[in-house]
Amino acid sequence: MPSISALGTVAERAAAADRDRRLAGEVVAELTSAGLPRYFVPRRWGGAEGGFASLLAKVAAVGEACASAAWVGMLWATHGRYAALLPEEGRRELWGGSPDVRISAALMPPAGSARPADGGWRVTGSWACVSGIDSAQWVLVAAPEPPEDGGRVRVFAVPAGAVEVADTWDATGLRGTGSHTAVVRDAFVPHHRSFTQAELMRGGDAPDLARCHTVPAQLVGGPLFCAPALGAARRALAVWSRWAAGKTPGGGSPHRDSAAVRETFALASAHIDAAGLLLERAAHRADTAPLTPALVAGNQRDAAVAAELLTDAVDRLFRTGGAHVREGGGELNRLWRDVHTVASHAVLRLEPVAAAYASAVLDADAVARSSTASRSR
Asked: Among candidates 320, 233, 239, 235, which has minimal Cα distance to 274?
């Protein structure tokens, strides 16, 4: 994966992505050649079977150039991890020709319907907020089976040619992700292009799967989803710092001579650094630590707290920057919108994450104390 200095096209097209509500073809090509779609693809099919800490760093680096590109690239990588749970024939159909296959997905909440058919299912429905769908070659969608067949939610791999795109994405931030609505009308999906959503949530258990394919989805979802905001916040600090180094109107003293500016710089930079450390630790644990409910809840907590720190940092920068640095079409404005949009994602909301963390850790502590007390009697 190239360094941020090598991602020139991504940075050059960031403003256009925000305006056009999609990534330019050159940006899509650059993200693909950078190896993001193949990042978690099994080595057997030419992929990298990469680690989470390395991907976090790469996505944050892309986020410094363009948060929308980082978001889409992160999801293309993540969806390759999910597609690795397909049966062997399904993996061959996706990656038999190349590991550089761009996969979009709409998995939460499930929508539409899946009716059993000879050899597979007939899938129908519409799914909102499918990032990068204009450039996807395959789309994963989640739909429930009929209640009489068990009502399980299944994930279906549908070729992009069988998916209609409804232009519905016009959000405040991450505008370049083109997260439009996917519409599938009675598409046939064979058995080998489906697996249960429960398997995705708990991680695969086939003997040929690497660790990156076996960890629970919730262990790594939060840290990876927050990575584009980390990059965007770092870039916002750099943009604001250039303003702070300049002089006040009329050729007066530099902005940095103001106590308020110095305080903003200290707090914002510390919050961004702290968020980075939290996310890096969470990604490292996802790569190496024993899998427990407390680990999953801890990583969710760290990602949500990191998102809070990043939004606080860019808020401080935005409030303290002068009128010109805050102008509507300016870079800091876009970065501020992007960070807030990332932080609004469901997996980064603090209230449900805090509840899950308290349940996993405090309940476990109570059981441990009870067990210790019993042994001491």
From this structure: 233
Average pLDDT estimate for 50-58: 97
| Beta bridge pairs of residue 103 | 138
Reported pTM = 0.92
Phi, psi of 17 (to 5 degrees): -60, -40
pLDDT per residue as tens digits for the range 161-207: 999 999 999 999 999 999 999 999 999 999 999 999 999 999 888 77
Separation between Cα atoms, residue 68 and residue 227, nearest integer Å: 11
Contacts of 307 (CB under 8 A, 6+ apart): 226, 229, 275, 342, 343, 348, 350
Judging by beta carbons within 10 Å of its beta carbon (0-12, 13-18, 19+), is residue 231 exposed, middle or buried? buried
Angstrom distance (rounded) from CA 157 to CA 122 = 12
Question: Tens digit of pLDDT for each residue in 13-41?
Answer: 999 999 999 999 999 999 999 999 999 99
- Torsion of the alpha carbons at 198, 201, 202 and 204, rounded to the nearest 10: 80
Helix extents (H) in 252-349: 259-288, 293-320, 331-343
CB burial of 175-189 (b: ≥16 within 10 Å; e: otherwise) equals bbbbbbbbebeebeb
Kindly report, residue by residue over 274-286, the tens digit of the pLDDT. Answer: 999 999 999 999 9
DSSP 323: T
Please tell me the predicted confidence (pLDDT) of residue 3: 45
Q: What is the DSSP string of 47-93?
A: -----HHHHHHHHHHHHHH-HHHHHHHHHHHHHHHHHTTS-HHHHHH
